[in-house]
Amino acid sequence: MKKSHQLKTGSIYCGDCLKMLDEIPDESIDLIYIDPPFNSNRNYETFWGDVQEKRAFTDRFGDADAYIRYMRPRVEKLYRVLKKTGSFYYHCDWHASHYVKIMLDEIFSFNNFKNEIVWKRTSAHNDPKQYGRNSDRIFFYTKSDKYTFHPQYTEYEEEYLNNFYRFKDKRGRYRLSDLTGAGVTKGDSNIEWKGYKPSTRKRHWAVPNWAVQKLIDKEVAELTIREKLEVLYENGFIEISKNGVPSFKRYLEEMKGAPLQEIWTDIPPISAQAKERLGYPTQKPMALMERIISSSSNKGDVVLDAFCGCGTTLVASQKLGRKWIGIDVSPTACRVMSQRLWDDFKLVEGKDFELVDIRKTEAELRIMPHFEFQNWAVIALGQLTDMSGIPNKRKSGDFGIDGRLYPIELEKKKKAGEDLFGDVDRYYPVQVKQMDKVGRPDIDNFYAAMKRDGRDKGYFIAFGFSGEAEKEVKRLYKTGDADINLVTVKKLLEMEANLL
Hints:
Elements: E1 11-14, H1 17-20, E2 29-34, H2 42-46, H3 57-61, H4 64-81, E3 82-92, H5 97-108, E4 113-120, E5 135-142, E6 153-154, H6 158-164, E7 167-169, E8 172-178, E9 180-182, E10 203-205, H7 209-213, H8 225-234, E11 238-240, E12 246-251, E13 258-259, E14 263-264, H9 286-296, E15 302-305, H10 312-319, E16 323-328, H11 331-345, E17 354-356, H12 362-367, H13 370-384, E18 387-391, E19 403-407, H14 408-416, E20 428-432, H15 440-452, E21 457-462, H16 467-478, E22 483-488, H17 489-499
Parallel strand pairs: 1-16, 1-17, 2-3, 2-15, 4-14, 15-16, 20-21, 21-22
Antiparallel strand pairs: 3-5, 4-5, 6-13, 7-8, 8-12, 9-10, 11-12, 18-19, 19-20
Helix pairs in contact: 4-5, 9-10, 10-11, 13-17, 15-16
């Protein structure tokens, strides 16, 4: 029996898109953008800028064949859910772009390939013994020859303006363009006007109807060529040269700009000082996503990002009036997306949008990559204790502190820009171990880390604790040395279930 699908926009699916895409009906998505990992664990490893991201491509994924084997079934499912009139964008860098292009040609058909967009993602690099790698590739495909596309424009370069828009009058800067087209035709487009007949130069009149329409109340189709020319001339839009050749005055202010080409150098990367920066290493600029969404979709269309990381595609879609669906394997990323939707649009999880499969079982958490497990534990503890859980961005050399819990009122003050009067120092350190039985030595190490940090209260999260560990925690509390709260993963999951 064929599985029944239901399209649920406003949903963030937490899991592998290979499975999650099965929930989406055939040919229901208008636009798909993906920026997939070169490693199935990329979101786990790099969400807080860990050094693992700097490993070589072959170390991280094995080889290009392994990467393509990983991506092919996922792209095939993305092809299934894309409408016949839909568009598809695949964002990648130099590691495997040439292999990706071959795969996409096979799935989408070479004839449906539209552009290989080159985006300058960084400033100049000083790469030893090679040219600097400072660009990404974005492959643009469609599913058929009928698809949405809205041309985008960029500002003219000053050199172009100086060369072509050299003239100026009371209306502004303008350039002269031909009022004729190649080839001789019969009838109205071959008349003589103001002593000039285009057929003598093997051409015919080609009057810009759009310009005439702006100057008259009736339909331009009701006018003859001569009448159109007279309308433009009387309103000062035609200039006749000394040798009698009429030209159309094309004003700069009426032009939309230079049509966007496939090399994009005008959208800078997210700098360390940028307001939109979240600390996610592969975060893409909002302007980049807005350009793609504006180009290849209409208001009300459905946009899907199956590797949506920190959610820039979803935020841009919401801003531009599109419906959206996000998928990511990282629970941390999904939580960040949820927070962004609240911060930017005051969208409430469970009311305005849904997080699907965000809850994890104890078995799933046991096999979760260690860095992601730490992120999950710190954030979950914060949410379940009405505090703000902030994982440590350093996953090595963290001196025994994997995260910090800040009182919610402090976070509100910080976001509001209020003076904290020293309150910024109010937090509780968190230690996380993906272990079944944390022992006394682990407690001792955390106690030492707390003292180094000047804290007398902290939290320790693990799957279980030994009797000696629990005994030492009680002793430290009784002597007034430290208040260490032991929290099991089972307890966190029970608290989470009680909130739902």
